[in-house]
Structures are given as structure tokens and as C-alpha cells.
Amino acid sequence: MLVHAAAGGSSALRWVMLLLSVAPLIATHAAAEEALDWSRYAEHGVVTVTTTNRDGSARRTKVWLAVVDGRGYLRTGGTRWGDNIERHPEVAVLIGSESLDLHVRFVTDEDTREAVKRAFREKYGFTDWAINLFRGNNPRIMLLDTPTQD
């Protein structure tokens, strides 16, 4: 039986070998998902977002971060870095000394948008209120997500 299995005759052994070969991939994917629990970054006030300008150069912008239900959000009005993200949604976000390569998705769901606006108001208080006087009450709200796969 062992000789037969070693020669590839056992479908059970082939399944075990297949599972063992993909286990590291599954573990890596699970670790990446865990890294995106933004709750551990909730207390950070300012993060640095690197976007891609129209000419291909990098633009680094310091912005506020809000965390709602374990997900990270950014927002902006009519800014160049926001325009950059609309053209090229792949960004790097520097939080302390940790850099994350992420994909940005614009939030259109009104309930989510309202929850994120409330989170920014609760976190940043009067300064958030004052900035809204200039930016308006309809900011571009962005969800920080895992990079897209090619």
C-alpha cells in the first residue's frame, strides 16, 4: 500500500499533498486579512498617503484617518491627491513607521458615508467642523482596502 501511494496511486495521498502545498498560501492570505483590521490604527491622528500624480511622480499628503467597524477611511474635498486616487486608486499609507500598500474604493452608500462623517467629527471635533465650512458637507470618502490582484 505504501509503495502504491508513493507512486501516486492513492487519491487520498494526492489530496493531502495538495493541501500541504497550498497551506502556506492560505496562511499568508489569512495574515494579510488580519493586517487590515484597522482598529489597531484608530488612535493615529494623521497618516501619510502616497498617491501618483498625473506625470507619474509621487505625491505625499498628510491626512486624517477614521476607523468605522474595523475598516479604515480617508476623505477629502476637491484636492489634487483625491484626484490622483480617482485616476490611480493604488496608494501607500504610512502609519507611524508601518507602510501599507492599499487599494482605495470610493464610498457611495449613504449610510456608510454618514457613519464615516460622524467618526471624523467625533475624533477631530471642532477642527473637523471648521474644515467642513470650506470643504462642504459632501466630501469624497474613501475606503482603504487590500490591493487588487492582477
Describe this structure in words.
The protein has 150 residues and is of the alpha+beta class. The chain has 4 helices and 7 strands; from the N terminus they run ααββββαββαβ. The protein has helices at 2-6, 11-35, 80-87, 110-135, and strands at 46-52, 58-64, 66-68, 71-76, 90-95, 98-106, 140-145. It is globular. Mean pLDDT is 83; it is low at 1-7 and 22-35.
Quickly give the structural class.
alpha+beta
Reported CATH architecture of the largest domain? Roll
Number of helices: 4
Largest sheet: 7 strands, antiparallel
Spatial gap, N to C terminus: 43 Å
CATH H-level superfamily of the largest domain = Electron Transport, Fmn-binding Protein, Chain A
Number of domains: 2
User: Can you give the mean pLDDT?
Assistant: 83
CATH class of the largest domain: Mainly Beta
- For this structure, the CATH topology of the largest domain is Pnp Oxidase, Chain A
Q: Name the helix and strand elements from N-terminus to C-terminus, one letter apiece.
A: HHEEEEHEEHE
Oligomer: single chain
Task: Tell me roughly what share of residues is in helical segments.
Answer: 40-55%
How much strand? 25-35%
Q: Flag low-confidence runs.
A: 1-7, 22-35
**Count of individual beta strands:** 7
Shape: globular
Question: Radius of gyration, rounded?
Answer: 21 Å
Strand order of the largest sheet: 2-1-5-6-7-4-3
Provide the fold topology:
Blueprint: H1 2-6, H2 11-35, E1 46-52, E2 58-64, E3 66-68, E4 71-76, H3 80-87, E5 90-95, E6 98-106, H4 110-135, E7 140-145
Antiparallel strand pairs: 1-2, 1-5, 3-4, 4-7, 5-6, 6-7
